[in-house]
Design brief:
The protein contains 3 helices and 8 strands. The chain is α/β, with parallel strands linked by helices and 144 residues long.
Length: 144
């Protein structure tokens, strides 16, 4: 049996805004065309989402090296009302002392603030942030 892979889907109000943020955060690129479905309309239909062909209705992002999971971002009419039950960990690479790793975490958080993110709280080993629509994620160090 082959290893299982995952895709992540994020529902939002402004798909283009979040697509640009997550491309910056993860180093992802637009997936054109969608490899599983020929068009965005086919992807939307598969997920039973409203279609209209607007450029800001959704985005399909992928890791350019093919290692990380896909990230699908789709505009939906209703605003989310519950806390995230799934969040993304943005892991900064590198080895070194705890102080070195913490400095890389802080630098990455600052970069993501410039891209539109918000720092919510700092902990001993990670920084809790939110993307431009308030979806929470953590900036932390990759395992040594």
């Amino acid at each position: 049996m082959a290893a299982v892979t995952i895709d992540l889907t994020l529902y939002c109000e402004n798909a283009r805004l979040l697509a640009e943020f997550w491309k910056t955060a993860l180093g992802y690129v637009d997936e054109i065309p969608a490899s599983r479905y020929g068009t965005a309309e086919e992807s939307f239909a598969r997920l039973d989402l409203p279609t209209g062909g607007a450029d800001d209705d959704g985005a399909l992002l992928c890791d350019p090296e093919g290692i990380g999971p896909r990230l699908s971002i789709f505009r939906v009419p209703e605003r989310g009302t519950a806390d995230n039950r799934l969040h993304i960990d943005v892991r900064v690479p590198g080895e070194g002392s705890a102080a070195d790793r913490w400095e890389r975490i802080r630098a990455e958080a600052a970069r993501l603030v410039r891209a539109g993110g918000t720092i919510l709280e700092a902990f001993d080993d990670h920084i809790l942030m939110a993307d431009p629509e308030g979806n929470e994620f953590r900036v932390t160090a990759a395992p040594a």
